[in-house]
Amino acid sequence: MEHLDHLEHLDKALVDELAQVARETVRDELREQSRKRRRAATLYAASGAVALYAGGAVALAVVLAWAYVLPGWAAALVTAVILAVVAYALREAARPSRPHAPHRVVEGTAPAAPPSGLGLPYPPMPGAPPVRPGTDPESPHHRS
């Protein structure tokens, strides 16, 4: 019996050691991946900052070009309006498409299935109550 207790202690020590090695391996791997991602994020941020300055230089060039034809304040205002329209268009292009309002059937019959092909767009409407054989549906005593 003591022999089994000794093996149980060894099993627990082995499991603890394996868990420790696994934790260290995962920690090292995550540290390496986060270091690479941090570097990529820094490069993206620097790229964005440089692009912002480049955009400012282009906007200044547009203002100076307009300034040949218009006063300086008007050239700056025209450029600002153009940039605002471009920003609005880019924002609208980035938004996910909005779902359309459901189509209502005013006259005629509803489509058999919605355009997505996922089945009926609504549960089917029950028709007239079933007529039992041997009964007259027009009879005043007929119950459904």
Can you offer a commentary on this structure?
The protein has 144 residues and is mostly helical. Helices cover 61% and strands 0% of the residues. The chain has two helices and no strands. The longest helix is centred in the N-terminal third of the chain and has 65 residues. The radius of gyration is 37 Å and the shape is flat. The N and C termini lie far apart (79 Å).
Summarize the structure.
This protein has helices at residues 2-66, 72-94. The protein has 144 residues and is an all-alpha fold.
Low-confidence segments, given as residue ranges, are none
Shape: flat
Radius of gyration: 37 Å
Count all strands and give the number. 0
What's the overall average pLDDT, rounded? 78
Helix content: 55-70%
* First-residue to last-residue Cα separation: 79 Å
**What is the H/E string?**
HH
Secondary structure tally, helices? 2
- Beta percentage is under 5%
The quaternary state of the protein chains shown equals single chain
Structural class: mainly alpha
How is the main sheet built?
A: none
